Every structure is written in structure tokens, then in C-alpha cells.
Amino acid sequence: MNHRSLIRALPLLLLLVACGDAGARQATDLRDLNLGMSVANIRPEEYINLVCADKEGASLAGWNDFPTCPVDEAGLHGISFRFNDEVNPLAAVNDKYEGTKLGGHPVLLRGLVDSGGVLKEIRIDTDPNARPFWRKKAYLLALAVRARYGEAGWTCREAEHHDGETPVGGLLIKEHCEKHSEQRRLVLDREVYRRAGQPLSDFVNATHLVIEQTTETAD
């Protein structure tokens, strides 16, 4: 295995933005994806199962088919995608690296592209359909994200709690955090709770991360 393949395979290095505390800017935002890049420059072999995020059943032959997908309120085309295990040599020997995972957690990925074909935003959500073992740990991905980007500079608040919500395993977490770093706005949410009326076998446990390109610079 060459050095480049190993770097792509290591899970915590899949989350590459700026690390605010260290003041060092990493090269990419997710694997070889970097906000501000043209989708024409995305390596086609790295990602599979490209689908319009807001148009059920609309599969894409490649990133350049983004105009097929409807735009959101910001005028961006959403594309869901997955990692290709065929280019990840560790996927064949360890299920921790198999599939679309960050920090070992199964995730859902979405890229948002503007009308000029520029990648402007990446959204990462823990997979609500993952095995129960991973669902119970999904909120921990938020801790790995904060450690990766640096603990300083986050503004956090408790999200609104609704009547009837109860703890899961002694935890009731509804946290919303934001950080600005190197022309990036990071929005990080983590949740652990049971909705009113949910059976004991069901619960909410999730991490949501948005990496958004901005024209602002960090303070």
C-alpha cells in the first residue's frame, strides 16, 4: 500500500478542515474533496451511488450531472454519495473501514454544488439505519469532530427540549454548536433522547455536521 492510499483510509483523517487551535490549514475538507473546487476535478473512482439528494430515484452517472438535481433555497444542487470500497485497501481486511464511515461511524454524505459546478457545502449525518451498536454511539462522532477542528472557538447552546422527551441510557443531549475557521462555517449538532411515545427499543442518537464555504475569515 502506498502512503497516499493509507492516508485516505485512516478514519479521522477523512475529516479535514482547519484545526483552529493549531492554526494549521489542512489540504482538503473530506478525503480529496475541497470546498471551492470544481466538480469536474473530482476523481470519479473515489465515490459511488451518486443520487440527487432531493429527487428520489434520480441517479447520476457522475458529478457533472449535477444540473439534473433540483436546487434548494440557497440555489444549490444536492448530491448524495458514498465512498468506494474498491479504492480503500483497508476495507477488505477490517469492517471498521468498510463502507461509508468517518471515525468508524457509518454516515450519510451530501455535497452541495452551485450553478457553476463549484462544491460549496458538505453535509455529514450519522446513519439512522446503522446497526444498533453504532446507533448507540452516534453522538460520539461530534466529540471526534470537535477534537479534530480544535476545542477553541466553538459557540454552543442547548437546543429546545419538547415535552415528553426522556433520557436514553441516562443521557439527554440536544446541543447545537458553530465555529468559523479559514473561510469555513462549521455547524455541529448532536442528539441523544427518546421522543414522547417512542418505544424503549427506539431512540434518537445522532451527529450532524455541515461544512459550508463562506467569504468570512476567522477572528
TL;DR of this structure?
It is built from three helices and eleven strands; from the N terminus they run αβββββββααββββ. By secondary structure, it is mainly beta. A hairpin with a 5-residue loop joins β6 (105-113) and β7 (119-126).
Shape call? globular
Find the count of extended strands (DSSP E, 2+ residues): 11
- So how many helices? 3
Unreliable residue stretches: 1-27
The span between the termini is 40 Å
Rg estimate, integer Å: 18 Å
Biggest sheet descriptor:
9 strands, antiparallel
Mean pLDDT: 85
The residue fraction in helices comes out at under 10%
| Proportion of residues in β-strands | 25-35%
Give the SSE string: HEEEEEEEHHEEEE
Number of domains: 1
The secondary structure category is mainly beta
